[in-house]
């Protein structure tokens, strides 16, 4: 099983230090989130001080950026890293699209299908110096002049993954994506019965091999070098669980476990600006359902129990003052856990017409 970690995106020097430390410890990848900062910039900074580790957005918002803008950002980080970049995209929920980005809302799965096709069409135009001629329901791209076209770089193609919650996006990931980032607000039952089942359905639709799609496991991980560090992370994870419990868009997993009442209890707190009180509403039973917690020695076994046979990659964070050798021992143990993913396909998966 592969291991990735998150870069800090509020300080580029810190991002570089974390990336170097992760590379020394044997991590397979570093990712940057899009929350308060642009995710591409820390990845570009990390690319300049690393040689092996994979770098990706996890995730970059798709719809607020035109496909060509996303294509440019990804292409440039891919160049800076000598071909180690992958593009992770997310749709975000309706409220954020409409009220934070000022965008009209439409069903995300068909739009994401067209968006990925458009980005790949732009890359293909640059890589092969061919005319741009992409047509779909949501995007039409037919103009790419030399002044706006990067030169072919001879690098492997850029893999594309998406973050998923619902069945339609899971099927889309299986059909046309190189990877899928499952939502952290997930239990093992939800991962198995909904997430993995949806991906398999998409793989069958696309006639694809499971070995060519990377599944980044959902669920939360609270870890650290000792019990005190784990306890601190447990508090943070408990708040994260409360946040997702408060959002109706993520209640399918609560329904599976007859916990909608918990969601209804937490739901008013953000509107009432009672953020600091939310974590206390999450009982230990719910915490254990959605998260695993253990120190670096305990973690590999816990990961295998929770994610074994379901996913290929886990995401976990460490502290800058952690011991690299201790991290390396943990990563080596996680690498021994079997997984299905082998490598991205040489060519991008071909999309069928939307059903």
From TrEMBL:
All residue ranges annotated as the Luciferase-like domain in the record: 10-308
Give the matching Pfam families. Bac_luciferase (PF00296)
The record's InterPro entries line, in alphabetical order, gives:
F420-G6PD/mer, Lucif-like_OxRdtase_MSMEG_2256, Luciferase-like_dom, Luciferase-like_sf
Q: Which domain of life is it from?
A: Bacteria
Gene3D superfamilies in the record: Luciferase-like domain
Q: Which GO terms describe its molecular function?
A: oxidoreductase activity, acting on paired donors, with incorporation or reduction of molecular oxygen
Give the protein's recorded name: Putative F420-dependent oxidoreductase
* Species this protein is from: Aquabacter spiritensis
């Amino acid at each position: 099983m592969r291991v990735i970690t998150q870069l800090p995106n509020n300080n580029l020097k810190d991002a570089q230090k974390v990336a170097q430390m992760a590379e020394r410890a044997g991590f397979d990848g570093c990712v940057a989130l899009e929350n308060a900062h642009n995710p591409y910039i820390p990845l570009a900074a990390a690319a300049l001080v690393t040689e092996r580790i994979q770098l990706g957005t996890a995730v970059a918002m798709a719809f607020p950026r035109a496909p060509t803008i996303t294509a440019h950002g990804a292409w440039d980080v891919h160049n800076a890293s000598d071909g180690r970049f992958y593009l992770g995209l997310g749709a975000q929920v309706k409220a954020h699209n409409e009220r934070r980005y000022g965008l009209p809302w439409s069903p995300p799965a068909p739009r994401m299908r067209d968006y990925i096709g458009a980005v790949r069409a732009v890359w293909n135009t640059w890589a092969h110096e061919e005319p741009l001629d992409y047509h779909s329901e949501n995007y039409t791209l037919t103009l790419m002049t030399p002044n706006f076209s990067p030169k072919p770089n001879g690098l492997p193609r850029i893999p594309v993954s998406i973050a998923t919650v619902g069945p339609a996006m899971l099927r889309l990931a299986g059909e046309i994506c190189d990877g899928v980032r499952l939502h952290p607000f997930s239990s093992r039952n939800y991962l198995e019965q909904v997430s993995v089942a949806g991906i398999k359905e998409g793989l069958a639709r696309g006639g694809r091999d499971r070995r060519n799609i990377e599944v980044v496991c959902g669920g939360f991980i609270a870890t650290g070098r000792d019990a005190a560090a784990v306890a601190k992370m447990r508090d943070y994870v408990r708040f994260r669980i409360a946040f997702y419990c408060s959002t109706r868009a993520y209640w399918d997993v609560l329904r599976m476990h007859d916990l909608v009442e918990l969601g209804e209890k937490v739901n008013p707190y953000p509107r009432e600006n009672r953020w600091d009180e939310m974590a206390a509403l999450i009982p230990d039973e719910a915490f254990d359902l959605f998260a695993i917690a253990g120190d670096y020695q305990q973690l590999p076994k816990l990961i295998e129990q929770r994610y074994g046979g379901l996913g290929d990659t886990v995401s976990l964070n460490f502290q800058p003052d952690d011991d690299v050798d201790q991290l390396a021992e943990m990563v080596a143990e996680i690498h021994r856990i079997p997984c299905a993913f082998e490598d991205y396909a040489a060519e991008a998966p071909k999309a069928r017409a939307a059903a």
